[in-house]
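Researcher: Please predict.
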Amino acid sequence: MVRSNTLSKDSGPALSSKIPLEYLKEFELDSVLELACEKSTNLLAIFVSVFCTHCVDLLPSLQELSNEHQILLITNGSSEDNRDMIEYFEWTFPVLSLTNDEVNEYFNVSYFPFVVVYKDELVILKSVVYSLADIKTLLKR
């Protein structure tokens, strides 16, 4: 899903930029945010649109990914949509509802599905992804 004239490789926060902790603190994600600040742990912020076919196709594989990585899923679905998905997929990781404008403002993400990998509060990797295999390839970089 393209939301601007930027190239997909230019989407997302700049490498080495900090996770927007102040904004995310509003959502009471203390345990997730603590992990984002640890040097030994990666946090995968995964951005999806509920109106994007590639995004919807990616959703069933996220629980498997959460067995190996800390995940924060950010969707443009309603809170009710997110509760339904959490229940249906039996996710054990946090899911946030943000508008496309909020995603763009706080994370500079304008393409979906998109992953930002944080370590020690900083962006270390980012990419458009279409499958679990794409995410695993990204994490091998």
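Model: The chain has one domain: 30-139.
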